[in-house]
Amino acid sequence: MTTQLSAHSVCRYLLCLVWGSGMFSGVAGAEAPAAAFNQEGYRLPPFKAPVTAPLPGVTTLDDHAFQALLESPSVILVDVYALPWHNGLFLQDSAHLTIPGSVWLPNVGAASLEEEWVDYFTTALDTQRKHAEAAPLVFFCRADCWLSWNAARRAEAMGYEELYWYPNGVDGWQASGHSLAAVCPQLPAHAERATCEP
Q1: Cα–Cα distances in Å, from 152 out to 59, 107, 155, 158, 178?
Q2: Taking the CB of residue 186, how many other CB atoms lie within 10 A of it?
Q3: 46: cis peptide before it, omega within 30°?
Q4: What are the φ/ψ torsions at residue 183 (nearest 5 degrees)?
Q5: How far apart are CA 170 and CA 37, in angstroms?
Q6: C-alpha span between 46 and 147 (Å, rounded)
Q7: d(C-alpha 123, C-alpha 130), whole Å
Q8: For a surface tag, which of 49, 64, 99, 113 has the fewest beta carbons within 10 Å of its beta carbon?
Q9: CA 29, 53, 80 angle in degrees (round to 5)?
Q10: What distances in angstroms separate CA 146 from CA 25, 75, 87, 95, one per listed residue?
Q11: Global pTM?
Q12: For 65-77, how does the pLDDT look when each residue is reduced to its tens digit (9 = 90+)?
């Protein structure tokens, strides 16, 4: 009887060690399971959930650090909040409120992008950088939003530098007592026409 209990205890101990070491975790340092990410390492839906994975090559900003960065001469704020797209049109039925001065690039934080959306993303970032070559690129969405994590990770994989991620996003900005501004999405080249007025 003593031998059986001892063997059972050893098995439980080993199981705890394996679990604690993260061997059941799909991404190193992340709490989300492997099934939550595609083969390229981008988060799959649902995107509204606590963001737990690390973001190598991108500086994470809390509310204080974000506001301090805004004191820089030029900062490029990139809102990646999603917006339905159908037959060449963004389908928007209400104003989108965001951090003032931001450019809104919907849907670039998806788990995978078709080539036309990759072109949309890179063209928009390159255009912003033409006006301020070394300006920090700050990606954000709402709080607990994997879209901004995906977008920042994608920009890093594409070779962009001076990348920042503000995980609290619009919610953190507003909670800090700041006002929001209405903005229209930047149109991709494959858009039929604009459907938004500021």
Answers
A1: 10, 13, 5, 10, 24
A2: 18
A3: yes
A4: -145, 150
A5: 25
A6: 10
A7: 10
A8: 64
A9: 170
A10: 17, 22, 25, 22
A11: 0.82
A12: 999 999 988 999 9
Distances (CA, A) of 168 to 49, 78, 138, 141, 154: 12, 13, 12, 8, 19
User: Among 99, 72, 104, which residue's Cα sits nearest to residue 176?
Assistant: 99
Residue count (the chain): 198
Kindly list the distances between the CA atom of residue 151 and the CA atoms of 3, 21, 55, 90, 103, in Å, as whole numbers in the listed order: 54, 29, 11, 19, 14
Residue that the structure tokens 């950088």 belong to: 129
Query: How many Cβ atoms from other residues are within 10 Å of residue 137's Cβ?
Result: 23
Residue 84 contacts by C-beta under 8 Å, 6 or more apart in sequence?
A: 90, 91, 92
* Residue in 144, 134, 147, 140 with CA at minimum distance from that of residue 61: 140
List strand residue ranges (DSSP E) for the chain, in order: 59-60, 76-79, 85-86, 89-90, 96-98, 103-104, 137-140, 163-166, 181-183
